[in-house]
Each structure stands twice: as C-alpha cells, then as structure tokens.
C-alpha cells in the first residue's frame, strides 16, 4: 500500500450513496480538515470521490412539505375569508395563537422526530407569521399593497430559519426575500427589465452567501446555491425579451452595491473566484440585454432584433452549460437538472418566437421537432463530456 497514494486507494473502493444533506456536511468537514492541515487536498478529493448523493425519491417528505404548504395557504385564506366577520382584536389574537402553536409544536417535534415532520410544521409557522405581519399592518392602517410588509415577513422568516437552523423555512424565506426585492426594485417602474436585473443581482447575492456558508453551514449553502442558479437563469430568461421602458432605480443600485460587497467578502474568505466572476458576468450580460433596445436602431431594426435574439440565446446556453458543469464537477444536488430544465424551457419559448413568424402548420412543428431533437442530442453529449472532464 505504500506505493499508492491515499486518494487512489479510496477511489478504487465502492461508491457509498448518502443523502445530499450528509454529502454537503461531509464537504464542509473535509474543507475544515484541509484548512487545519489534518489532511491534504489529494486525500480530501479521494475521500469525497468515494461518496455520492443518493437519488432516492422521498415521497413522504414531499407529501409532508406539500401538506404544510397547503395548510399554511389555507390558514391565510381562512383568515381572509372571515375577515369582515371578526373584530380586529379577534383576528389579531387568532393568527398570533396559530403562529405560536406552530412554533412550539415544531420545536417539540424537532426534539423527538428530526426530519421532514418538524420541517413541515416550521413551514406552517412561517406562513402564520406572514398573517401576523399583515394583520399588524392592518391594525396600524398600513396599506396591504406595500413591499415593506413582504420585506418584514421575509426578514422574520430568515431570522426564524437561522435560529432553528431549518432548511425548510430557509427555502420559504429565500423566496419571500427575492419577491420583496424584485417588488421593491420594480415599484412604480412598470418594466419587466427591472425585475430581470433585480433577479440577477439577487443571484449574485445568493451565490456569495452560499460560498460563505460552505465551511460553517453547508446545509444552508445547499439552499442558497440552487437559489442563485435559478435566479440567474430566470433573470436571463426575462432579460431576453426587449424592454423599451427600462430605467434603473435606486433599489437596483443599492442591491447591486450590497451584492458586489458581499461577493468581494466571499472571494476573500473562499477560493471560488471563478463562480463569483461568472455570476458577475451573467449580471453584466443581463443588464446589457435589458438596456439594448433594437427598435431604436437607425439602420435595420429587424436586423438589430435578430442580433439581440441571437446574443440572448448564446448567453443563456453558455450560462446553463456553466451551471451544468459546476453542478457535475462539485456534485451539487439539483443543480444539473435545474440547468437542463431551464435550457429546455428557454429553447422551447425562443423557438416559437423565432420560427412562428416564418413557418406555419405542419412545417412549424417539423422545424421545432428538429430543434428539440438537436437540443436533446447536444445536451446528452454535453453531459457526457462534462462528466469526463470533471473526473
């Protein structure tokens, strides 16, 4: 055994399949051991190569999470449906009691049954907290259609997620936070381009937060990183459509400044400079696409429109390919299917937009079929190439 390095010995052993959560924890531990000098990079890579994320479908977890989501929506709906029948004090006291009961029940369950059951009750607690926020705002005569209320709900959900170290409430909190920022940035703007750039700014923010979590809280990094990927792909998708009414807002500049500062901190605290550079490049590309108005071209508006469409398609395909490579090389759960699914949706919509004016009837379906088959072949070939390169 002295003639073989530890990584070669470990790589030759059978692969052990564990849950994505445990695999993320293992990566964090290996990074900490390597930073402390307990093992070298070769040994860390060999240990990590022995483990793979399990792809088993947890039906009971899905049922519990969906059930919690429906119960949470049902609670809010019940309060809204009986809004006029109850006094303000009864409405406020009722939703507060529901929220407190959910919080206490979640922690009692977490102490005895760790897993999906307490996570589902925590989701109900987050939903009930939203009811508390909006009911309090109504008592204070704050308009319900205000982004500040969603921001308060998102902030409370984030605090609750970190206090309980729960990934399920963190998923909800991240979604609420993105919704709040996009709403705040696009308020009174009337532009889908502002929403697109806000999503791209949030993508940089989420990626930087994920990198900062990788060492100390890898389970939370597994939430923030896919959120960054999804935001980047959705933002590029929306930016691909021309927007003549785009204009920057103070919220966009504020969010961009915070995201850039956080990205610099994450580069300083980690070695993932490439990820941050790519996300900043995607933000820049999306911004350029958004401000690019082909109708204002003095030469040929139709030609400028075609060039812009091609640029958007190329940029989106490159971004999806990068995320697929990142997810494969780092064994990030959910990232590769997310990138592949987003690419299929993008190709579908763009193909209809490009070929519908040129073909009709059977010819349109034949052309689209050829495009989809070609996309599938290239995606399959690309996946094999990425797996070979990342080995």
TrEMBL record:
Residue spans making up a coiled coil are none
Q: Which residues form the DUF2157 domain?
A: 32-167
Keywords of the record: Membrane, Transmembrane, Transmembrane helix
Q: Which residues cross the membrane?
A: 62-83, 89-109, 170-186, 192-212, 219-239, 251-269, 276-292, 304-325, 332-352, 358-379
- Family matches, as InterPro entries: DUF2157
Provide the protein name: DUF2157 domain-containing protein
Q: What organism is recorded for this protein?
A: Actinocorallia aurantiaca
* Origin organism lineage: Bacteria, Bacillati, Actinomycetota, Actinomycetes, Streptosporangiales
